[in-house]
Design the sequence.
């Protein structure tokens, strides 16, 4: 083989390799353009408003009791405390980089139904009383939404965290003792507050597109979250219509909760009482409905 023929073959090989590289670059550019072009066309912002209602799915067993008389003596029975039962309103703002996935930040307000029993711990006159305990919670809910991207009826799944930034619980005890003269009526309210609650939130639902800007949705929503208050305080106490709060000491009206306490510590009447922290259940499952506005 002459030197000219060898050089010609080497040139052909080099030319083919370079052309192949150019074709790969062009194919890569085309593929990226198609993917990102579709992505940019599909991206959108949206806002949704909704409301849900449902039962609690966890309970506390050391706060509420009921009393009964079986003929041979008085019986006391535990009443499960379930604070997750109630209404939830939500407003959320989201961004969908594609029709298959979305990022969302929601703000929810939970308003609980009251739990009813005969007695509750740490309330004046609460050893035998008509008791109502209910909780409220304002929460932030960051989450990821995944869907197949259907046009009309689009199923989806949403999973994220729930952060209760303003949880509160009120325990109200009302007594009516007609066996004494004069008859004695009293009412007391203990308010639990302080601290935050954290947990998980998930939903399975379907959205129905009405037009380019509005859709309706329905979903099953699940939250797993407990709340451990830092403080509690008696904010209302009356007997026969007369305010009794001025008669109580700070130790009787206020309580601080800790992970560990010294049982031998003598707490003065001018300081809040100390107790071990307790876990109050806000977990729930609900059916929610709402509307979505697309931008």
Sequence:
């Amino acid at each position: 083989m002459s030197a000219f023929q060898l050089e010609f073959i080497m040139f052909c090989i080099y030319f083919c390799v370079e052309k192949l590289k150019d074709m790969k670059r062009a194919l890569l550019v085309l593929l990226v353009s198609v993917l990102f072009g579709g992505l940019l066309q599909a991206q959108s912002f949206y806002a949704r408003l909704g409301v849900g209602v449902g039962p609690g799915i966890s309970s506390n067993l050391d706060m509420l009791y009921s009393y009964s008389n079986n003929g041979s003596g008085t019986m006391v029975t535990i009443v499960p405390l379930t604070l997750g039962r109630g209404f939830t309103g939500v407003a959320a703002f989201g961004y969908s980089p594609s029709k298959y996935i979305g990022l969302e930040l929601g703000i929810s307000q939970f308003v609980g139904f009251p739990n009813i029993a005969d007695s509750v711990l740490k309330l004046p006159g609460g050893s035998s009383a008509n008791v109502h305990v209910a909780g409220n919670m304002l929460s932030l809910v960051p989450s990821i939404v995944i869907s197949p991207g259907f046009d009309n009826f689009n199923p989806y799944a949403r999973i994220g965290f729930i952060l209760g930034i303003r949880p509160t619980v009120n325990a109200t005890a009302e007594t009516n003792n007609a066996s004494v003269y004069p008859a004695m009526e009293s009412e007391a309210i203990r308010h639990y507050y302080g601290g935050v609650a954290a947990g998980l939130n998930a939903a399975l639902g379907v959205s129905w597109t009405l037009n380019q800007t509005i859709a309706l949705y329905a979903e099953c929503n699940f939250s797993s979250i407990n709340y451990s208050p830092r403080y509690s305080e008696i904010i209302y106490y009356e007997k026969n219509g007369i305010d009794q709060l001025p008669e109580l000491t700070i130790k009787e009206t206020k309580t601080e909760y800790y992970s560990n306490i010294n049982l031998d510590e003598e707490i003065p009447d001018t300081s809040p009482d100390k107790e071990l922290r307790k876990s109050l259940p806000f977990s729930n499952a609900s059916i929610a409905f709402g509307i979505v506005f697309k931008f």
Observations:
- The chain has two helices and 18 strands.
- The first helix runs from residue 3 to 42.
- The first strand starts at residue 44 and ends at 54.
- The radius of gyration is 31 Å.
